[in-house]
Write a structure and sequence with these properties.
The structure is a single chain. It is built from three helices and 39 strands. By secondary structure, the protein is mainly beta. The radius of gyration is 31 Å and the shape is flat. It is about 15% helix and about 45% strand. The protein starts with a helix and ends with a strand.
Length: about 475
């Protein structure tokens, strides 16, 4: 028995030694493996960066449920975020503009409870400022429908960049002396001095003789705004949101209130999509802009399912170079009777530098004119206009205006002085067909048609107003 007891003790000691050795070595193993595999450390770092790209203003000290300014917190959040999540129902107060020069998404965490950004000062609420990366000049003539341009210098230009061509020559139908020929494209390829474009050129440029063309290039940045209200406490002479040189920007379920000059300005943007915005500016007679949305020199802008009230014009297409291929569809503009706002007010329209613009399936009530055309290749189709106005459309500059299958309806015995108000400055073509007019107290076309290049009027129906 004694020998057996000693044997058992020895065996137990041996087992304890093995167990202690196992746990001691196991504690060291994670450190050894971590040090031997630095790739694991890299993976962890990358994961942390992705997580850090999404923030809320509260991460930087904001409180959207008090009455204190949140400007610094919001700006810090924007500077450190790819996605900024605003608290549902919060009301963030700012006293300076918020700014971003990188791709960013700003949205409320709950689409049914949009957050509000309240700008208490007489400045903009949000500025998206892309920074020019290259400025050079076109070195050879550009023909119509050309797939590329040749530049003095292509260093730093990459596929995906925006390229803005700006001529020294004035836009063809400019009446103000400073709006230029030009166009906006996206770069697809760079070969030597040639820069290939996403679509062929829209104009002809006589570079080297009597014309020079600057080429300004911007990196590709985008923007998403959704489920947000921007407002001033009272109407102020401001532009609420300014968006410059973005690609594929998306603005959805956004409202703008009390910026009397302009709600949202899309400046030289490419393929912006605006859906379900509600804009109420509080514009007064002294305001000669008063646009709900202004597309300034953009390309491919689409505005749908949106409403505009207390504006001088719901949507305006214009620019320092022409706005092209823009569309407003399925939207509503409410105006005052003729003479209440500054002259030239209209539900929707173009302002000289506009090319291939379409207004389709919209509803307009009141305004001096339902629509205004001061551009080329303008189509106004399947729209309804009601109420107190001078005319369904005023045409003053440009060429190739198509007015198709629209209707005007009288409210409280309202009537039009003319369905089309034609100014003497317009010398292009007009096609008006399939329109229905209820309440016309004058001719179908009011103004001289002698200087028109071509006029097609057919299948329009004037309905006698009920006594």
């Amino acid at each position: 028995m004694k020998i057996q007891s000693k044997t058992i003790i020895v065996i137990l000691l041996f087992i304890v030694t093995i167990v202690l050795s196992y746990f001691t070595s196991e504690e060291k193993m994670p450190t050894l493996k971590y040090e031997d595999h630095p790739v694991e450390s890299k993976d962890i770092t990358e994961t942390e960066v992705i997580e850090l790209s999404t923030h809320s203003p509260e991460d930087f000290g904001a409180n959207g449920f008090d009455n204190k300014p949140d400007t610094t917190s919001l700006q810090n959040a924007i500077d450190n975020s790819d996605t900024l999540l605003l608290k549902a129902g919060a009301r963030y107060i700012i006293d300076q503009p918020l700014e971003s020069s990188h791709t960013i998404t700003i949205k409320s965490e709950d689409s049914d409870m949009p957050a509000a950004i309240i700008q208490k000062s007489s400045e903009s609420a949000l500025l998206i400022n892309n920074v020019e990366k290259v400025s050079t000049f076109v070195s050879k003539k550009i023909a119509y429908d050309q797939p590329y341009v040749e530049l003095n210098d292509t260093k730093g230009i990459e596929p995906g960049d925006l390229i803005h061509l700006v001529s020294t020559k004035l836009w063809f139908w400019d009446n103000r002396g400073y709006l230029k020929k030009g166009e906006l494209h996206r770069v697809t390829k760079v070969e030597g001095k040639k820069v290939y474009l996403d679509s062929n050129t829209n104009g002809k440029y006589n570079v080297g003789k009597d014309e020079s063309v600057e080429a300004k290039v911007y990196p590709q940045i985008s923007l998403e705004l959704s489920h947000i209200s921007f407002m001033h406490p009272t109407p102020l002479k401001t532009v609420m949101v300014k968006i410059n040189y973005t690609i594929d920007a998306k603005i959805n379920n956004v409202s703008v209130t009390n910026s009397k000059l302009l709600g949202i300005q899309l400046k030289n943007t490419y393929n912006s999509v605006v859906n379900n915005v509600k804009i109420n500016l509080g514009t007064t007679k002294d305001i000669t802009s008063g646009y709900g949305i202004q597309d300034w020199g953009g390309r491919g802008t689409l505005i749908t399912n949106s409403s505009f009230a207390r504006v001088r014009r719901g949507v305006d297409f214009s620019g320092d170079t022409p706005s092209r291929f823009g569309t407003v569809a399925n939207s509503i503009a409410y105006g005052y009777k003729d003479g209440v706002l500054a002259s030239g007010n209209s539900g929707f329209g173009t302002h000289s530098t506009a090319d291939h613009i379409t207004f389709k399936n919209n509803y307009v009530k009141n305004f001096s004119y339902g629509f205004l055309s001061r551009g080329t290749n303008i189509t106004v189709e399947n729209n309804v206009h009601e109420g107190f106005s001078r005319s369904f459309i005023a045409v003053s500059l440009g060429n190739h205006v198509n007015i198709l299958n629209n209707s005007y309806k009288s409210i409280n015995k309202s009537s039009l002085e003319g369905f089309i108000m034609l100014l003497n400055s317009y010398k292009g073509t007009i096609k008006a067909s399939g329109n229905s007019i209820e309440g016309l107290n004058g001719p179908l076309i009011k103004g001289s048609t002698e200087n028109l290049q071509d006029l097609t009027v057919k299948d329009n129906r004037v309905i006698k107003q009920q006594e």
